[in-house]
Amino acid sequence: MSKKTTIYDLAKRLGISPATVSRSLNDHPSISGKTKKKVLEAAKETGYRINKFASNLSLQKSNTIGVIVPRLNSDFMSTVLSGIETIANNAGYNLVISQSLEQEEKEKFNTKTLFESGVDALLVSLANETMNYDHFSIFTDRKIPLLFFDRVIDLPNCPTIIIDNEAAGYQATEHLIQQGCKHIIHVSSGLNRSVYKLRYAGYRKALKENENNFRERVIQVDNFSPPEAKKVIDFIKTSVHPIDGIFVSSDSLAVYIIKELRSNGYQVPNDIKVVGFNNDPVAQVITPELSTIEYPGYKMGKLAGQSILSHLSGSINIETADQIILKHRLIIRESSQK
Amino acid sequence: MSKKTTIYDLAKRLGISPATVSRSLNDHPSISGKTKKKVLEAAKETGYRINKFASNLSLQKSNTIGVIVPRLNSDFMSTVLSGIETIANNAGYNLVISQSLEQEEKEKFNTKTLFESGVDALLVSLANETMNYDHFSIFTDRKIPLLFFDRVIDLPNCPTIIIDNEAAGYQATEHLIQQGCKHIIHVSSGLNRSVYKLRYAGYRKALKENENNFRERVIQVDNFSPPEAKKVIDFIKTSVHPIDGIFVSSDSLAVYIIKELRSNGYQVPNDIKVVGFNNDPVAQVITPELSTIEYPGYKMGKLAGQSILSHLSGSINIETADQIILKHRLIIRESSQK
DNA sequence: GTAATTTATGTAACCGGTTGCGTAATTGGT
DNA sequence: ACCAATTACGCAACCGGTTACATAAATTAC
């Protein structure tokens, strides 16, 4: 009971070889039915448990998938993770999850750690800070499946799962324009990450196309925490042109901006219209309810999991890098309607 | 570059034994400085990486901690996980995270999987469904550290980390009473989990002590998702006594109840006062802002991590089961003030 | 009834580190 | 220069499965 039994114990007990025990436990075709039964019974009786350490060493695989995310405690990320976990768990894979906390150094460290711990594949959503991608070469060099989701970078043979951020940014801005906004600002963070850069590009495109002399203006925040809302309000208060529209790259920040606007005497949506991003739960809790871009986190997670699993099972040619673009959707609520 | 080098390769290359290489890499005291240097250099040159599979097998430890949570995508849980991850990662441990989705079967399966995958310790927050705890005996039998947090159960030698839910429930209810509420209901889920049972007990205690003939009434919901709010509203609308106070075991549900109340013509807090639980971000986003119990998730995660690490390092006597009770705090906001 | 197959099991090497024990090499003391 | 005490390193077993290959047993074929 307290002592662990090995296949050698079982072999001795049954007077057969460890190889036969191993094959029986793995339901190998060349073992007779009765022997298998005997082994299974003995295994049950003795409380035998496979030693994955030994199995992993022998098979050179861990049935484990590594994940690196910027942070665990964001509604979007935890939803994606939930999707990944569901798929992975169902397929018998464990998930080793670590967070980079937006730091390049931590991301590097985690990449190395996960590599050494022998994950069979790695899923990554990049840190804002990360500018160099060499740390992923230990995976790509050895053809270990590597996939990026949401915060992606284009590396050879690495699938990516994203939404069309540029189109989303365009639609959000276009919507504000159609609602009559003349001076729309964009609030974003870390423009070196493509997600944000593309939303910004979409914003600019929409402004350009609508031959107004709107001046584009990005307020870059350090992160999407509540205090950053103040920076936006400060800008608005001191702006020469009266700001009447805000496209924020994050719902969580958007709601704080709305609160801050209201406490500064601005009416939303009358004075200023706001569109967020993500469709976080808070979007439907704030008054007025927040217009936003629906971002299919759970689906993204499931697809990321499925994609990497099919790579692992070899049913997809690893050399064929693919890109999956999920549908997003502009959800119009009160915060942006005239 | 593409071929992995082993300590045997290094040994051959340097004309020394694998044992010396191993000891050098582990900075063993009985190896001379020059040899160590030689080995380290050769390791760098050849791009040597330790094979954790082999190391784990030999050492019978994985530097991995398993975690089972009801679900990943809840603000509270992901915050706890973030705390655990920070501590674990810092100490060189990986985190294998899985979710039970509130199902006893999945919890059992995950427990078994994590055991077999050789985690050095297990952290668990129980599923609502779970009624039987035998599946944890594989851990307790073999003295593998097992710790419960938040949704706990008292098992021999298993530390727990919680808050004083009864006191919190008491305070929340008492506060409502002091604000003049005469008919307070409690909204909760799965009363077989101690967290919820204790909050309920606190609620009852507060009612009893205030010698009114308040009748206690629990509305039990299946989960804390938005649709469940309707059940609560239905009860309130058909109640003989006019309900004027609600203590909800979850902020996320509380905000939907408030929204639903408002759209049914009730004024919060004038007609009905509401207190939630958790201090989720939504609590400050809803209008009126939600009074709630602050629940220190990040700290809970960090403590869970630290506690289990000290068990692993042996600095705490494993036989001494401890219980850590974190401080909670009633945060009074608009939703409950007269 | 014997050879040709097919089926069932055993042998032994391998996966790549780790470590107790023994020995050779170096240092130190006098 | 000689013996003792350190110090540095090698040998070999071990961790527990997995699997190619060999071999023995059971079937089938003629």
From TrEMBL, chains A, B:
Domain HTH lacI-type: 5-59
Domain of life: Bacteria
Molecular function via GO: DNA binding
SMART domains xref list: HTH_LACI (SM00354)
Keyword Repeat annotated: no
Entry keywords, A to Z: DNA-binding, Transcription, Transcription regulation
InterPro entries in the record: HTH_LacI, LacI/GalR-like_sensor, Lambda_DNA-bd_dom_sf, Peripla_BP_I
Protein name: LacI family DNA-binding transcriptional regulator
